[in-house]
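Question (not urgent): is this output format expected?
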Amino acid sequence: MSSPIRVLRVVGRLDRGGLETIIMNAYRIIDREKLQFDFVVHTEDECIYNEEIRSLGGRIYSVPTYNGKNHFQYVKAWKEFFQTHPEYKVIHGHVRSTASIYLRIAKNFGLTTIAHSHNTSSGMNLQAIAKNVLQLPIRYSADYLFACSTPAGKWLFGENVVNKSNFKVIPNGIQSNKYIFNSDIREEVKKEFNITNEIVVGHIGRFHQQKNHSFLISVFKKIHEQNPNTILMLVGEGNLREKVTNQIKDYGLEDKVIMTGSRNDVHRLLQAMDIFVFPSHFEGFGNVIIEAQASGLPCVISNTIPSEVEVTNLVKFIDLDKSTDYWAKEVLTKINESLYRRDTSEEIIKAGFDVFPIAKWYEEFYIENTVKHFVNHY
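Got this back:
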């Protein structure tokens, strides 16, 4: 091929969230002489990954954020996009709320359409209800139905989706060798944050209702009462950061909580942690739990998270209905059980979560479907 096949991926933004990071993990290692990822985003903002994507040869386009009132403007923007960009033969939609709109338009322009489920809930507010209504037709309109886990697939596409030939669970891949425990990196990170001999309780996730930070802070308060030699490291950003900060102040824990902000070196930060706690209300998968296990960290997580994340014996599931005292006890017990960090990379690879074979699968799938498009249309 004289130029690479270009596949269009649809996302909300290109910041350092779980979905975006998963896409970038594969994008960095695909053969970009054969295949390129281009993106449609629902923002005019310059996002964190934009510069890297352009450096890798990717293109970024914007459409309006959908709010219901601008329905016709949104439809028009997509029609105009496909009219001016006939080079795309495959579209991969990660924004589920409006996928039934843009995938239908894409199909009318002859593209192969993919819908990808990354979650198991839209939340519980009015906006979530609207999303649930909008996303219902997706299961009937997309050519392929992908999901990061079986529960995520069933939630978005229906219970019977697992029996359909066009459905596939695609693991969220990581570069597993980056996460292998390294004592030198551990000391570097601890020095950066002035950590001496404290036990580090870690969490990675945006400050959003889904991640349940208020419960996490309450659990840590109990942990710290029982073991004053503990600190909490929170990695991430989000619109609830101020609320979380105020709760930390109310508990008098300002000197016991490290807030790193958004970071591009999660694999390093995990080295400094001694246990990973993740009490999310819901997750389509919870890729950071795979990353934590890859670094040899014991993990205490909510049982709302798909069981597929348990690929080592480092994971403990707990019901969110259990008290903060119960959670604190389990976290402290798990810390005491884990006296050393072992190399789990072989387990991660065997479970199918290494990004290299996943990226190769994407290459073959996209190229095959692009070739199929030309055979069927010319």
